[in-house]
Amino acid sequence: MYVAVKGGERAIDNAHALLAEKRRGDTSVAELSVAQIREQLSFAVNRVMAEGSLFDPDLSALAIKQAQGDLIEAIFLIRAYRTTLPRFGSSRPIETGQMACTRRVSATFKDAPGGQVLGPTFDYTHRLLDFKLMADGEVPEAETAPPRTEPTPHIMDFLNTEGLIEEEEARDDTPPDLTRAPLELPADRPLRLQSLTRGDEGFILGMAYSTQRGYARNHAFVGELRIGTVPVELEIPELGFAIEIGEIEVSECETVNQFKGSKTEPPQFTRGYGLIFGQSERKAISMALVDRALRWKELGEDDVGAPAQNEEFVLYHADNIQATGFLEHIKLPHYVDFQAELELVRKMRVEAQTGLQEAAE
Amino acid sequence: MNDTARENDRKTWMSLLAKAPSDRLAALWSEAGYAPEHSFLRAPEQGAVMVQGRTGATGAPFNLGEMTVTRCAAKLADGTVGHGYVQGRDKAKAVTAALIDALMQTDQASEVQAAILTPLACEAQCAAEVKAAKAAATKVEFFTLVRGED
Q: What is the DSSP string of A265-313?
């Protein structure tokens, strides 16, 4: 039986007004501008762009303001907005080898051409609260040094020339798109990478950490981590050639993984790959580790039954908007469902009681 | 000038306009004082482009996520057509980019180049250099302590 219930409208309107008041907070404190969020909370902005699957720092900052800093709610807003945009096309694959790097480190080669460029990193900070930030916002100008003029080569290229690492086969087929067709299994690597790059940072981090702790351990080294900007090229149909339609910041992580060899592959290093919108190296490294764990089948490795090897488990639970949508819906009215359960439990109790009495007699 | 060179030049200025900061482009455009009569072949329109990456940087393409893009096509009174494809959601910027693209195909090209494109290109290069120089200052200079055992 379906019972239509009315009467919540005024309560809902008032709840929204209360939410808006809470968003603004104490009015004697200056209001945050979207530009302030964009410029000063860049890691939050980056996370919302990556998991919202839309590179637009202004919109991301607006979503964070509207969601009062609830990043999953902000991602939800971006995902909803994204669906209203007509798609003009797909870019050419970005060339991360041409990246203007602001950060580039390798855990495997100390003296790689291009060097170890730390960039704006939290590494080596002491993780002590800086009370100066409560007082003034004055910062000294960052130092400069003569920059490298040529592009920084990928570290994997060096291992490649020796044949010590699996070859990454250049292809140009159209990749599957899980925003246009439902995610179906088995998923090929491009589909898995799309799912991972927009997956929840905490979930991907947890999955990656599980591989390090021994659940499908794959001995990852960070061959290279680079962060910087790359141009995005789009073929313009009315012109017949490609132009750069913009420039985006991305984080890229390539892992080098120990590999004993298998029935089909010789002993060599294998690869895991992470690529994320914005400066987001925790997610990029996590993505690379999970990517590598999910590749067990194509590398002829054993399925040891680890969660990170299970693509159904990983890919179907990585999306925080799907997850939160299903999770949070259970707080909404289920009055009729519950009424039925109530009736059922009462009936079962009566039956159980009668059964006991009959047995006793 | 042959077709390839012309195409390369056009690609260069369109790319520059796509990436230019909205406020700078608007300021240079209004300073230059152009107001060419035009009609729209395609009214300014906001949309998205799916950005692709490659597995392992060089392998098969995969979908990384979308970016916002605004486009516009304008026709000048003499029939010259200009296209604007710009990053973000600024419709005015897309219109300006389309009009500049059109003007660059007319005999006003060198004027427009000097008033708008050259300053934009200089500023973009300057900003990129400052960024690169700040990153370069964080490069690690390793030194090895000689242990003197041999």
A: S-S-BEEEEEEEESS-HHHHHHHHHHHHHHTTTTTT------GGG-HHH
